[in-house]
Amino acid sequence: MKVMEKRFNPISSKMRSILLCLFVLVATQNSKAATIYFNDIFQGTGSSYTTSTNSLSSIIAITGTGFSFTSANPGDSIFIAVGNDIAGTLQYINASGVLVSLTGTISRQDKVSGVTKGLYFVVTPTPNNAYLLVIPGYTGYSAGDNVSTSSDGMAAAMNTVLSDQQAGAPLIAVSSPTVYEDEGYITYVVSLNKTAAYSISFTPTLQAVTATTPADYTNSMEYSTNGGSTWTAVSGAVSIAAGSTTLQVRVPVVSDNVPEATETFNLVTGTTSGGSVLNSDGTYGIGTILERISVVVTSGSLASFSTCAGTASDAQSFTVSGSGLSNNIVITVPSGYEVSTTSGSGYASSVTLTQSSGNVSSTTIYVRLSSSSTGS
């Protein structure tokens, strides 16, 4: 739809807008699903494993952090086997910071002196890779080992591990926040699921994924131990005090005014020290930076203007509205024209429509040739 003739553009170059774009963000999380955690996992050499394979060959250590296995059924608060198989998802971030989610089945285990120390997980239906998930605290596996497994009852074994982890040492976790790039900061919450008798220390680091520094965020982290009332620069290890359960870490994000896809980067705790923590090798949170999608809509068309010297022309009008805005809409007219939101008064070379919560309701804009204009 034509809004202005060529010599007049009703939308100022100061206003960054993207038309006909829509982002839908769907985030789901279920805290009820049975989940157990690991500090170390290994992968068996080869890719011909099945749920009934009784050993892993020449195991290789997997580099990553935040290893966990979660029941396939989000409503299961304990592990429930079908036959002897427990379906679920193995999840972690790899050395490049990329989230890895593998769907498969735990069907066998390795015991030492009658106690479960490793769980056999096979990816299904393909590519049939197999992994050894090491129960935290056990250090008896090494790269290159061949590990035999048994088909002893998996539900009982895994629910024993689940119960021990729930009743044992605190679990450390990091939130996965989402912000728009113009919000200034993204804040991660590092938490324990229960208080510890001693302070828990870790040295947070940032891991670029699709968001990078300094283009999208900076490394100038700050932390708060009082819910964000005060912030202190991160210069090394930070601590969750004994008897406390949370600490916040915020990171500056950069608004570059360049349309781009959603981007992510991670905050990684690294190894913890001090009090005992179940997942002491650390964990991660995935930070997501969204582009604020600004939509400005104009409606109406303008005919040619004409007037006599020294007299303003009759006004013509169009409407403007906006959503998802981070700034006000500024409408600037070329020399010889003037603009107002009122038909009979208030004309000037520009007009500002103030956004509220990112929105500007439909507003009529009046345009005319000024009395100082010459010609049509």
Entry summary:
The protein is mainly beta and 376 residues long. It has an 8-stranded antiparallel beta sheet with strand order 1-5-6-7-8-9-2-4, with helices on one face. A 5-stranded antiparallel beta sheet has the order 11-13-19-16-17, with no helix packed on it.
Strand segment tally: 28
What coarse outline follows from CA principal-axis ratios? elongated
Mean pLDDT: 88
- Give the helix proportion (percent range): under 10%
Instruction: Name the beta content range.
Output: 35-45%
Report the total helices: 1
Radius of gyration: 30 Å
Order of helices and strands: EEEEEEEEEEHEEEEEEEEEEEEEEEEEE
- Regions with little confidence, pLDDT below 50 for 5+ residues: 1-31
Structural class: mainly beta
Main β sheet profile: 8 strands, antiparallel
Strand order of the largest sheet: 1-5-6-7-8-9-2-4
Termini Cα gap: 23 Å
Give your account of this protein's structure.
The protein has one helix at residues 154-167; strands at 35-38, 40-43, 55-56, 60-61, 64-71, 86-94, 99-112, 115-123, 130-134, 147-148, 172-174, 178-180, 185-192, 200-202, 205-208, 222-224, 232-233, 238-240, 246-252, 263-268, 273-274, 284-290, 295-299, 316-323, 329-332, 337-340, 350-353, 360-369. It is built from 1 helix and 28 strands. It has 376 residues and is mainly beta. The strands form 7 sheets. The protein has an 8-stranded antiparallel sheet, with helices on one face.
